[in-house]
Amino acid sequence: MHTKTEGNTFTKEIGQTVYGVRYYFNEDAKETMQEKINRMLVIEVKQPEI
């Protein structure tokens, strides 16, 4: 896998397919990315398995 980063976009090559990804961050966010990931993990763990 190869990754190239530039500004708020990056490309990711997986096998012979190249994916272009654009991202942004909300400057007014009330939580950090780490806090958001932790919150999402807690929610995921609390969900019952189907």
Question: H/E order of the elements?
Answer: EEEH
Give the tally of β-strands. Answer: 3
Cα end-to-end separation: 33 Å
What class do helices, strands and sheet pairing give? alpha+beta
Explain this structure.
The chain has 50 residues and is of the alpha+beta class. Helix content is 28%, strand content 34%. Strands 1-2-3 form a three-stranded antiparallel β-sheet, with no helix packed on it. A hairpin with a 2-residue loop joins strand 1 (2-6) and strand 2 (9-14). The protein is flat and about 35 Å long. The model has no long low-confidence stretch (mean pLDDT 85).
Give the tags.
50 residues; 3 strands; alpha+beta; flat; 3-stranded antiparallel sheet
Topology:
Layout: E1 2-6, E2 9-14, E3 17-22, H1 33-46
Antiparallel strand pairs: 1-2, 2-3
Quick rundown:
The chain is α+β, with helices and mostly antiparallel strands and 50 residues long.
